Amino acid sequence: MDSDAMNASLDELTEKNFAGFVSWLARHDTEYHFGTTAETVRKTLFDLRDQLDREPIVVDKETVLDREWVTDLLRSWPASWAQSARDLATVSEGGIPQSERKSASQNQATTFGFEDPRGRFNSLQYNAVMCNDGTGGRDFEKMWADKQARTRTYPATGGHLEFGIYCAGWPWPAQEWKLAKGKSPLQLSGHTGEDTTPYSWAVAMRDTVGGTLLTIEDDVHGSLSSLPCAAKAVDFFRTGRTTGGTCPGAQ
User: Fold this and answer.
1) 49-82 pLDDT per residue, tens
2) Among candidates 145, 237, 244, 152, which has minimal Cα distance to 189?
3) CA angle at residue 196 from 135 to 131, to 5 degrees?
4) Do residues 197 and 210 touch, judged by C-beta distance below 8 A?
5) CA–CA separation, 122 vs 114, rounded Å?
6) Beta-strand pair 246-248/212-217
7) Shortest CA distance to 248 belongs to which of 238, 230, 234?
8) How many C-beta atoms surround the C-beta of residue 111 within 10 A?
């Protein structure tokens, strides 16, 4: 599990999705006023981001509308394009989005998640898995340099540090897994558009260990449990039969 490669694959995916976002905005120029062509929209959004980089808008002690705020919205997926467009348009026109007025995110510095409440899942558990198994760097300066390099490669959405960033200073070496193809039946599933566990990861796992990949045609992480084709995946646990092909996703 290479956290550096995982971050890079997310950047590649969100950059491709951004192209769809700017085309969508161009088709909705009468509502959001970013431009009537993808090229114009792209420049307008980049100009807005540069402006907030120079002069961030401080909403309160915990909420700042800055370069990172814009980049997060540029990473939006189709289900949230309309909300992201409204927020970006509001700031472009000199206002503060209502969502940012209502609640401020509270980002507090943590140390590996040791102080998190113990429960079914918490930061300590997550970081232990990612850092003990991950082959990414342990050096923050290298992670930051990689982030900057990916920002240059993917100028709209590059710079993810979702995976591995908490491993900076992790005191134990990675326990790298040696995966090989098996002979037993294995049911895999993946969603074509999501960015939590990108579809390319499911394909890579199938190619590495074998198995049958069921493809869900949506961008919603975890939607399979609420879809009719969930029965196909669950049937594997009853019969051992695997199912490939595609099935409609969440609308």
Assistant:
1) 999 999 999 998 788 999 999 999 999 988 899 9
2) 244
3) 25
4) no
5) 9
6) parallel
7) 230
8) 11
Q: What is the pLDDT of residue 195?
A: 84
**106-124 residue pLDDT tens:** 444 455 555 555 555 677 7
Separation between Cα atoms, residue 15 and residue 56, nearest integer Å: 24
Identity of the residue numbered 24: W
What tokens were used for 99?
């969502």
- Give residue limits of the domains in the chain: 11-102, 187-248
Give the residue carrying structure tokens 């939006």: 76
Residues 243 and 194: their CA atoms lie apart, in Å, by 21
The single-letter DSSP state of residue 133 is H
User: Which residue type, as a one-letter code, is found at position 88?
Assistant: L
Alpha-carbon span 135 to 115, nearest angstrom: 25
Question: At 9, which amino acid appears?
Answer: S
CA Rg, the chain, in Å?
21
* Nearest one of 155, 67, 165, 78 to 123, comparing CA atoms: 165
**In which element (H, E) is residue 231 found?**
helix 230-239
Residues paired with residue 86 on neighbouring β-strands, in sequence order: none
